[in-house]
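Input set for joint prediction.
Command: fold jointly, output tokens.
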Amino acid sequence: MRKQIVAANWKMNLTIQEAEKLVNELIEKLPTLQINQEVVVGVPFPYLTMVKGIIANKANVFVAAQNCYTKDAGAYTGETSVPMLKSIGVEYVIIGHSERREYFHECHKMLTEKVERCFEHGLKPIFCCGEPLKIREAGLQNQYVETQLKESLFQFSAEQLKGFIIAYEPIWAIGTGKTASSEQAQEMHAHIRSVFQGQYGADIADTISILYGGSVKAANANEIFGKPDVDGGLVGGASLVVSEFVPIIEGLSS
Ligand code: 13P
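tokens >
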């Protein structure tokens, strides 16, 4: 049974006081999680230790960094390495979010290196992919996403990619209130799984958790998560409001 995950991506939001209040409230209201279900909270670097401390004893709840650097240590002012994240108990890292690709010019090769650092040090990447509106309008989304996966991930072995986590986030649906329909999500998720199947075989493809991201809300989570190839969500804006985020977690099928 592959993992179902609801991951929060707080992005660059909240003061530490607001963050502490939010995570305490989330833990208090957290629904019961099945054995194969996880909640991952992706928070800004300065809050990782605080959030980790609050969720420490909660089964199936983990903390994620929103980025990491490609090198382990050295003269890279302002960067945060995977060994640093590991040393404070971080388990997950969001890699290749479209905002990082766009605003920080992260390319396929850089993302490969980041995933590689995570594998080396035993952290779990949540690898983001997804097409811009122009590509969707041209009907080229399948090829576009396939290229993102191939260029950054197909250097890795089947063993390394077993249980890997992908977040499909169509850029036109991020922060716009315009969600992909559950059919559009299912179609792309099935495509992503078939791309992995073609390269690594069905045994590996079936272990990959594919999360949908882009304007996931309490009102649409259950329908989207109900699709056979959708294994949960990566949630931005709605993860900042506990009364929205908790029903999203409840939207995971049992
Ligand atoms: P929104 O849920 O705010 O659309 O953001 C999605 C996202 O980018 C999560 O990584």
